[in-house]
Amino acid sequence: MIVGVHQPNYLPYLGFFDKMRESDIFIIYDDAQFNKGDFQHRNRIRIHHGSKWLTVPVEKKHVPINEIRILNNAMVKNENWNNHHLSQIVDNYKKSACFADYFDGLSGIYQGEHKYLAELNMELIAFLNRSFDIYTKISYSSEAPSSFFSTQRLIELVQSVNGDTYLSGSAGRNYLDIDMFEACGIEVIFQDFKHPVYEQQYEGFVANMSAIDALFNGYRFD
């Protein structure tokens, strides 16, 4: 059984969902340490001159992701942050081929109440899974707490769901201890994600946007 593991990012890019599709079970690493420089509370959308960051205002503490609180009273350009994100999405995708098919579902999430970042992110991930017809079983690392980190922690997570194969992102070649996996009877394979090129709303193509870019523009996984 192939197991993928990833932090619950905000509006993840297509590679996140490709990894989920290639997994038999996907573990959301929700008790990993929050990293303000990563994609856990921000991601990019396509705009006319390139891309734009959408960032969720959060308490930037040295705690696990699932303990990070959203600053719901934060304002961005005289709007509540969630309304600002929605207005940016509308402004840049309202003319896209599939905007009308999916915007109401996305809008409903932003109009809801979310105390914690991971809660918001998982609602968005679930929405995108449904939209892309991805039904991989999801588990959470916090359901199998541990004091281990790095490779040993990943091994424990794979073992916790009786997996025999770990699906790593390509960057894992630079930091994983493959011998440690093999000693535990776990095969390591690497994701081979090649970003598709599809028609965007503006001239040229910019890869690695949030997956809502692909969704609104009609892209579907094979």
Q: How would you state the average pLDDT, rounded?
A: 96
Fraction of residues in H or I helices: 25-40%
Q: Which class best fits the helix and strand makeup?
A: alpha/beta
Sheet-strand content, in percent, reads: 15-25%
Along the chain, the helix and strand elements come as EHEEEEEHHHEHEHEH
| Global outline | globular
Number of helices: 7
Radius of gyration: 18 Å
Strand order of the largest sheet: 7-2-1-8-9
Beta strand count: 9
Distance between the termini: 22 Å
Number of domains: 1
Query: Any low-confidence stretches, pLDDT <50, length ≥5?
Result: none
Largest sheet report: 5 strands, parallel
How are the SSEs ordered, and which strands pair?
Elements: E1 2-6, H1 14-21, E2 25-28, E3 42-47, E4 50-55, E5 75-76, E6 79-80, H2 81-93, H3 99-110, H4 117-131, E7 137-140, H5 150-160, E8 165-168, H6 178-183, E9 187-190, H7 211-216
Parallel strand pairs: 1-2, 1-8, 2-7, 8-9
Antiparallel strand pairs: 3-4, 5-6
Helix pairs in contact: 2-3, 3-4
Pfam family, one: WbqC
Organism: Methanolobus halotolerans
Protein name: WbqC-like protein family protein
